[in-house]
Amino acid sequence: MKKVLKIAGLGLLALLVIWTFVFLWKKSRPQIKNYQIEQAQNATIEKKTVATGKVQPRNEILIKPQMSGIIAELYKEAGDKVNAGDIIAKIKVIPDMVTLSSAESRLKRAQLVFDQSKRNYERDSLLYEGDVISREEYEKIQLQYRNDREELKSAEDNLSLIRDGLTASSASSSNTLIRSTVNGTILDVPIKVGNSVIQSNNFNDGTTIASVADMGDMLFVGKIDETEVGKVSVGMPMEITIGAMQDEQLTAELEYVSPKGTEESGAILFEMKAAMNLPPDLFVRAGYSANAEIILDKREDVLTIPESSVEFSGDTAFVYLVTNQKPQEFKRKPVKIGLSDGIKIEVTDGLKVNDKIRGNEIIEPK
Questions:
Q1: Sheet holding 177-179, edge to edge
Q2: Residue 170 gets which letter from DSSP?
Q3: In terms of pTM, does the model score above 0.90?
Q4: Whole-angstrom distance, CA of residue 109 vs CA of residue 115
Q5: Could you say which DSSP state residue 172 is in?
Q6: Do 322 and 357 contact (CB within 8 A), yes or no?
Q7: Beta-carbon neighbour count of residue 233 at 10 Å?
Q8: Class of domain 63-93+172-213 (CATH, top level)
Q9: Measured between alpha carbons, how far is 313 from 69 in angstroms, rounded to an integer?
């Protein structure tokens, strides 16, 4: 039994020695690497940067009331199109009781004065016709009558304005009717019937009745990093991709870059605005998130190769030119490079069209 175990042990040891020898022999042999073969071709290279932001109307107008009160009626809602002068809402005036009482008292006094002036005028008219009083005295009474009549009308209008917010002569243009000041689309109506509103004046912005904007004049408003802001300038073309409209590729033109940056999450960002070119039949909603690709530089019909094929040694760039495909053999060759878009790179010297070069290594599956 011991003899059998001894023989088996020697056999296992011999197998282990043979396996180790084969393993070391295979490892010592040079590994043959295969590479993809790339070809130098003419193409267009665009160097771009991406800015994130959203779509906004160029001018969003806030419609404010010219008097305080309560919303009595709403005639429009978000999404409706309006023209300048269209009525959006109507305000019911809630008068101040002290002011109302004063206006009522003024009207009563004006009525008493007018009644007396009217009696005097009618009496003196008869006396003038009978040549009892002079023309001068008659004209004084006539003037007083007309002044008192105008004062009565003014007192009536004043009471009507305080109590109802309008007069008989200005009912169609009363401040109780809130009108759009521009042509456009209503983006928001943040109030409801019954809400109290405050008039716009020098001391108060007033309550917003509605916001109106021209949806045909839209801007991309975004932010660009400080490392890229020096490369952009007004007039540069942009391509806009809207998150909710992936199938639409829109163009825009950069028209504003902020001279002052703001810090956000440790980075310095600069605001930018671009005028969007919208097709007439395309409706873009305000507030859509969007990305803008800005073309920083562009080279058309230049010799290009994959950037991954280029290697660097100090300030020198070089590639491996194919001298034989089977087996693969290469020759190192220096080249001069130009613009890169991160995938392709321009070659300005050292290669010509259709030259074959070494690409990435082909990894064989295990």
A1: 177-179, 87-92, 69-74, 196-197
A2: S
A3: no
A4: 10
A5: G
A6: yes
A7: 10
A8: mainly beta
A9: 78
pLDDT in tens, 297-350: 888 888 998 888 888 888 888 888 888 878 878 888 898 988 888 888 888 888
Tell me the average pLDDT across 261-273. 90
Q: Find the distance separating the first CA and the last CA of the chain, reported in whole Å.
A: 43
AA letter at 138? Y
Q: Give pLDDT tens digits for 32-59.
A: 677 788 888 899 888 888 888 999 999 9
* Same fold for the pair 35-44+300-361 and 97-164: no
Q: What is the largest CA-CA distance in the chain?
A: 170
Fold of 35-44+300-361: 2.40.420
C-alpha pair distances (Å), 211 with each of 67, 79, 207: 18, 11, 11
CA–CA gap between residue 70 and residue 93 (Å, rounded): 6
**E-state strands within the chain:** 35-39, 41-57, 60-63, 69-74, 81-82, 87-92, 177-179, 184-188, 196-197, 210-213, 218-225, 237-242, 245-264, 267-277, 289-306, 311-313, 316-324, 329-340, 344-349, 356-361
Superfamily of domain 50-57+215-298: Efflux pump adaptor protein, beta barrel domain (2.40.30.170)
Indicate the domain borders of the chain. 35-44+300-361, 50-57+215-298, 63-93+172-213, 97-164
179 strand-pairing partners? 87
Instruction: State the SS3 of 215-275.
Output: CCCEEEEEEEEHHHHCCCCCCCEEEEEECCEEEEEEEEEEEEEEEEEEEECCEEEEEEEEE
Q: 102 near 95, Cβ under 8 Å?
A: no
Query: Which CATH code is given to the segment(s) 97-164?
Result: 1.10.287.470
**Structure letter (DSSP) for residue 176:** T
| Residue appearing with tokens 């023209």 | 83
